[in-house]
Amino acid sequence: MRRLDDPRALAGQRVLVRSDLNVPLSEDGRITDAGRIRASAPTIRALAEAGATVIVMAHLGRPKGTPDPRYSLAPVVPALSKAIGRVVHFETGPLEDTAKVEQAVAGLQPGEVLLLENLRFHPGETSKDDAERLAFARQLASLADAFVSDGFGVVHRKQASVYDIATLLPSYAGGLVAREVEVCDRLLKNPEHPYAVVLGGSKVSDKLGVIANLLSRADTLVIGGGMVYTFLAAQGHRVGKSLLEEDQIETVRGYLRQAESSGVQIVLPTDIVMAASFAADAEHWVVPADALETTPAGAEALGLDIGPESAQRFANVIAEARTVFWNGPMGVFEFPAFAQGTRAVANALTSHGTDRLTVVGGGDSAAAVRALGFDDDQFGHISTGGGASLEYLEGKTLPGLDVLKERA
Fold first, then answer.
1. pTM for the whole thing?
2. Among 123, 160, 172, 334, which is disulfide-ready with 65 (CB 3.0 to 4.6 Å)?
């Protein structure tokens, strides 16, 4: 990739930076997890300090190609200003008002930073029509002399501000994207062994590609979260009302056979926390993984966390590993009664020295460790891109990275 190794090379230029500022907001508009803002700050700050005029582009949520005040980037402005240590100007007008946006950019001095309003307020950003997307990219490109791609969470999307704009301007991977790629390459190419992959989250279908690609690389696959019930069903166990993807049972059986034949250990829970309902205060019981319908709730119970025996076993596997990749919580961590499995995994990742590689794969995993009170610097790396990380580790070509490759 073409990398921005020295921001001073862009001194005096207007630079468009695609960041990932898609942070979660509370109902009253407060940022509940500013991790992506903090991760985006170093590249923006370095460019501004080098004397570039920095125009930051980002999205928030999933508006339908039209302005929607619920998804305005306005709440991000003070947090980004604090993170980079300087004032961030904010262009509130619609991106279709080219003259107004150009006027705002023209008023900037070297070293100043402007954040544009939500890119997804414009239909061209996510359009499946190449011409419409390219037209919007041209509009954005007219504002600057160079482009820096620093939003790893969107590089798996073929969107105007991610892909098309890189075909129009001198383009570089920012520090965040470069670091994410380096970490993913270590997980794929030369991991130090023992290598443990810990997977959770709700759906096994979201992780099939990762399982397939890492089975030949990892020594151990540890499975928890909602996806575990499809694995337990594949072993012939009844799972009550727990999350189950029946159409994936045969696929999972194939992975179990493949792992056994190749000497890869798949570690499944031996006990589960079953609940009477999906609620923070639901009555719950710890039962063996092969007896999930034996609680007072019977076949109506649903699994909301791994049990304490499993949590300890998972922690032991992680403690012995030299490389660990974790994606997906072990249970419904938002409910304190069902957060202990996720907490045990996070504790194990942070409790056994810094001379190994521990990677938290973004998305719900990153949200979980912060919600449970862990600091980012307790882990080797917390990815900013859940979906992008998974697709990279599946071996897929990511458009936003591919477009940055040096061409012969």
1. 0.90
2. 123
pLDDT tens readout for residues 359-390: 998 778 888 898 899 988 888 899 998 889 99
* Catalytically annotated residues: 36, 203, 363, 387
Longest dimension (CA), the chain: 70
In whole angstroms, what is the distance from residue 36 CA to residue 407 CA? 30
Phi, psi dihedrals of residue 323, rounded to the nearest 5° = -135, 130
Helix (H, G, I), strand (E, B) or coil at 205: helix
Identity (one letter) of the amino acid at 87?
V
Q: How open is the CA angle 59-65-67, to the nearest 5 degrees? A: 75
Q: Up-side HSE of residue 156: CA atoms within 13 Å toward CB?
A: 16
Distance of CA 278 to the CA centre of its chain: 25
Rounded to whole angstroms, how far apart are CA atoms 277 and 399? 42
In sequence order, what DSSP letters do the residues of 223-290 get, joined into one string?
Answer: E-STTHHHHHHHTT---TTS---GGGHHHHHHHHHHHHHHTPEEE--SEEEEESSSSTT--EEEEETT
Q: Which residues face 324 on adjacent strands?
A: 196, 358
- Which conformational region is residue 150 in: left (phi greater than 0), alpha (psi within -120 to 50 degrees), or beta? alpha
- Tokens for 215, please give them: 């089975």
